[in-house]
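Workshop exercise sheet. Pairs work together: one partner reads the sequence aloud, the other fills in the structure field after running the prediction. Swap roles for the next sheet.
Pair: D.N. / O.F.
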Amino acid sequence: MRQEATTQEQHDRHPHHHGHDVGERLYIHKHSALHLFPAHLKILSAFSSLIIIVLTPLSNWPAHVFYYFVIFSLIKVSKIPIFKVLKRATIEIPFIFFAILMPFISGVKDLDIGLISISSEGAYAGGSIIVKATAGTLISVLLGATTTVRSLLRGFTKLRMPTLLVQIATFMLRYVNVISAESERMEVARQSRGFIATGPKHWKVLAQAAGTLFIRSYERGERVHLAMLSRGYVGNLPDFEPEAVDKKDLTRAIILPLTFLIAAALNLIYSMNF
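Structure field:
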């Protein structure tokens, strides 16, 4: 009986979301300790770790190797396929491309590699961008994959983020689903009438459909807002899923940034002595 009660308590605190909504497609449902960890502590831990990674110079490369070891260990703990995380991390490819060009377009070209002259300063800056941006992207992908959007928004509220910003993000994510569903219905209606967009000649029809979608979404938003006001909405959304936090969770949240900070400090001291 006690085990069943504990399971029910965990279910109440962390209800299952399988990412069917547009706003939840980044979330990957798994049963792991990282998924059950309170959202606001995950945000705090991830943000603190990112700051430490950014402040660690590239010359302190043992610390960065350790950072990546810890990040991939957390991916293993989350039970999310590593290739899934790496695939989502490809969003940073434009930044990597820019970083690769930096040795050729920035600084004084004082380093000869064969027939090519590059800037050592630009190479250092580009390498720093690649290493730090990749680590930050992996942490962000892991945070989004293990935390639902609703939990993230509640987490930002608990961290005392400006209420207006949280409300804007909340309604934006809710209306993404509404607009997406309305767009799909309009597309089905067009296809049922034999319309298939094949080129620029159909852009006029698609533009008219986009205008109609905007008007419908705006009108629906007004109706929803009036309905919310009639139910007592005063600018704050109620939190129906409070997260209880104990001292163990708080300690675990501090472990990751503290470990990164200690590793960076130890490697810096070692490099200064030798």
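Discussion prompt: The chain has two domains: 31-147+244-273, 162-230. What would you look at next?
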